Amino acid sequence: MLTAVLLFLPLAAALLLLVVKGAAARALAFGASLLEFVIAAYVAFDFTRHGSTAYNLDYRWIASAGINFHIGLDGLSLLMVLLTTFLVPLILLSAFKRDYDNPSTFYALVLFMQTGLLGVFVSLDAFLFYFFWEVALIPIYLLAGAWGGERRIAVTLKFFLYTVVGSLLMLAGFVYLYLQTGPAAGSLAQHSSELTAFYNLKLSAAEQSWLFWLIFAAFAVKMPIFPFHTWQPDTYTEAPAPATMLLSGIMLKMGIYGTLRWLLPVVPLGVSQWQKPVIILSVIGIIYGAIIAIRQRDVKRLIAYSSLSHVGLMAAGVFSLTQIGLQGAVVQMLAHGVNVVGMFFIADAIERRTGTRYIPDLGGLTRRTPILSVCFLIMLLSTVALPLTGGFVGEFLLLAGVYEYNAWVGAVAGLTIIFSAVYLLRMFQRVMLGPDSSFSETITDLTGGELLVLVPLIALVFWIGLFPNIFLHISEPAVTNILALVGR
Amino acid sequence: MTSIILLSVFGILNLFLGFLRSNKVLLPGAMLLLLAVFGANYADWNVAHAPYFNNMLVVDNYTVAFTGIVLLTTILLLPFSRSYVTSGEPNLAEYYALLLFSLVGAIMMIGYDHLIMLFVGIEILSISMYVLAGSNKRDSRSNEAALKYFLMGAFATGILLFGIALLYGATGTFALSQLGAAVANPANASLQPMLYIGILMMIIGIGFKVSAAPFHFWTPDVYEGTPTFFTAFMSTVVKTAGFAAFLKLLAVALPAAQGFWMPTIQAMCALTLLLGNVGAAAQSNTKRMLAYSSVSHAGYLLIGLVASKGMLTGDATSGIFFYSLAYSIATVAAFGVLKLVAEHRQEDSYAGLNGLGKTNPLLAFVMTVAMLSLAGIPLTGGFFGKFFLLAAAVGQGYIGLVVFAVIMSMVGLYYYLRPIIAMYMQPAPEGATPVPVDGIQTMTLVVLALLTIALGVVPGFMSGIL
């Protein structure tokens, strides 16, 4: 029952926000998201002690077609739920920093989006999963399109079309799988769209081969993997900061999560057939994103390309099909979510103060902003994967997984750490240090309200960096289960 | 049957109401009458009735379900005729009466069990529509629309009637159930050329009414010229009734001739999807876009005919029912908003919707829901409509057609997003004032949006009922 509460509480708050305006809207939005996090934390606590059975919900949704409203939690979904519920309050706090037009609608869309995201992470029915997958898209499209920068219309249209085309291909794959299933126990319908029904299918290697690409299309666009990424840098740059945080911090993980839950175990033969090309594409993405990031002069765009590079490593780790690679992907999903939200928050903080994101215009900001500099550096070093930080644990495990798959690929993928050190530290140097710019004397340091966002993020960076076992322990059974299904 | 009687009586009653010269009673009056008819229709659900008029008309669940759609659509559409009420239109009562009479025709088309009844139904519906298309007498485009619609429609009806005659010649009967046996009878094999020409002519005639390509060319011009209120009626009620008739004809009378009509319908389906979607993508006028979009939706419904494989029950029939319902509701919402906005701003291009999200959040929201539903995005009824239809077609093995339909629905996304972009992402024109919306219209818009979302969230209550 608590799973349903988790799922629909943000939606209820979003609906309330349609009538609540002004300062009360902020309180309501933030309060709801905080309550949501508290519930998620309680669920996590209870989950580790009593297991997942209490969180399984299964209702008939469309009885005549055998489609059920089936949601549940395992270690993997739980971590994703925790990440989402942890980040959304912080993203809302960061949205309060700016005066957006029509703010209560803005917050309502963020919360609506949260329901979509959580739905993706807890669905255990293929069509329910697809349903939430698309539900998450509508609010983010409106957020980015209505509150974005100058080129928002063309950019968000491209984003929307890319992702929807990808999802439709996935839906086609699901429909094909669905029609291969038999009736579920106790159901009058001829087919079933249960996740387990999909797992139990025995399909030929040839079928799985093309099904792999149908389903993977949606995930590859969402992550995004090279060469399906062309929507990403533009969209990240043009969207307002909170929407960028949602996109990069959480929505990107939908792709990885989807691959883990709905691709690897469903078409294992297809996966083993295409494993190598996908890993190669991922590694190309790592290098490609990093090299382009070096050349960027817009802070937000640089972080966008850096995110492209990092997600390539996550994908490579997932497709290494090793326990350590998958575990690394799970930890890195958390760490990257925290890092990238922090980075975009700081980029937004600098833009709010100076009115620009253009690197050559900035410089020498650090003298007046010691706290900002320290926070920036911590986030940045975690993204670079310095030991003690969350990024290190994730990337280390991922690289170990890729190395286990193939030493050469692992070596090339390892370049990501060097590259990200190059472009991120160079950016830090040119923005915060370096010769003084016109803003060096006038810029103000972080306010208490901004620290409220950054301190939890930094705390989590170190928590994941120092005690990753808590998270690894939660996800381990789920990952083992996925690998067992792949290996059958 | 009760609904036909009630509608005819109420239509005449409405004409007399016109003598009162008080337009204020007409709108609530017509809505109440229609609600009563809707109730009477609902009372027939799951009730076995003997056929009426010497087996010419049957009232079964199929009839009741599709009649429900056309009645509901009309009820939800009526509040948007408010501007005719306030403009002091002298002939308002006649318009309402014609609407009610045309519904009688629609119900006959849905419930027919005899080709003559089909013809009578189509004529009652069409003649009312010819008049209503030209109801804006002072507008030359409305006159053009009426003339075009009438000339083309008259030809199509002629062809349909010729087809019926040939079918009679080949089989010796007008009754659907006997036709089925006669077509299947090998003794009639020598008359097959006549039969096939007859079937083809009937397909052309009905294809024209539902604006399926290549018989759709009248649609954009007629839709654009016709007053928006009647365009909405045309693209929902006429289409729903047309498809109900089409499905019945193919499924009950002609299953034995499947080998002949199946390739024809498939080709029409692919062509309709292509021309409708590509045509819509090229428009810059919202009304014309909706006209082409209604052509494209005829294409999706034709997939249902293909998947029905000559059966009046099952996945495909349920799919057509659900799709028609979701499509009708979304289309009424879209045209309703468009009518209100275009009347206020005197502009029916996409630019006319600019900044609506700021000036009228409710209208913009309802339009967004309608567009998403027409595009088939989850959370709206349109998604499940497409899903049920395409799943039924995949289940019958028509993979190629479905893949094509999915590609075409990607094209659809492009043009359905353009009103959304205009409403939320473009600034409102200088000095734009909110579009005035009265209480009953607000309520109807909310109902339309809620129905669309309900169909998209809990489709179970309407799926699989046939």
From TrEMBL, chain A:
Domain of life, per lineage: Bacteria
Keywords tagged on the record: Membrane, Transmembrane, Transmembrane helix
Xref: InterPro entries: NADH_Q_OxRdtase_chainM/4 (IPR010227), NADH_UbQ_OxRdtase (IPR003918), ND/Mrp_TM (IPR001750)
Membrane topology: Multi-pass membrane protein
Cross-referenced Pfam families: Proton_antipo_M
Transmembrane segments: 75-93, 105-124, 130-147, 159-179, 210-231, 243-264, 276-295, 302-324, 330-350, 371-393, 405-425, 446-466
Localization per record: Endomembrane system; Membrane
Domain NADH:quinone oxidoreductase/Mrp antiporter transmembrane: 124-416
Stated family: Belongs to the complex I subunit 4 family.
Protein's name according to its UniProt entry: NADH-quinone oxidoreductase subunit M
Gene source species: Hymenobacter artigasi
Automatic annotation (TrEMBL), chain B:
Keyword Aminoacyl-tRNA synthetase: no
Coiled coil regions in record: none
InterPro entries, per the entry: NADH-Q_OxRdtase_suN/2, ND/Mrp_TM
Pfam families named in the record: Proton_antipo_M (PF00361)
Enzyme's top EC category: translocase
UniProt-annotated location(s): Cell membrane; Endomembrane system; Membrane
Membrane topology: Multi-pass membrane protein
Keyword Translocase included in the entry's annotation: yes
Keywords: Cell membrane, Membrane, NAD, Quinone, Translocase, Transmembrane, Transmembrane helix, Transport
Catalytic activity: a quinone + NADH + 5 H(+)(in) = a quinol + NAD(+) + 4 H(+)(out)
Domain NADH:quinone oxidoreductase/Mrp antiporter transmembrane: 114-410
TM ranges: 25-42, 62-80, 92-110, 116-134, 146-170, 195-217, 229-254, 260-282, 289-308, 320-341, 362-385, 397-417, 445-465
Taxonomy, superkingdom: Bacteria
This enzyme's EC code(s): 7.1.1.-
PANTHER family the record matches: NADH DEHYDROGENASE (PTHR22773)
Subunit structure: NDH-1 is composed of 14 different subunits. Subunits NuoA, H, J, K, L, M, N constitute the membrane sector of the complex.
Role summary: NDH-1 shuttles electrons from NADH, via FMN and iron-sulfur (Fe-S) centers, to quinones in the respiratory chain. The immediate electron acceptor for the enzyme in this species is believed to be a menaquinone. Couples the redox reaction to proton translocation (for every two electrons transferred, four hydrogen ions are translocated across the cytoplasmic membrane), and thus conserves the redox energy in a proton gradient.
Family: Belongs to the complex I subunit 2 family.
Protein name listed in UniProt: NADH-quinone oxidoreductase subunit N
Organism this protein belongs to: Hymenobacter artigasi
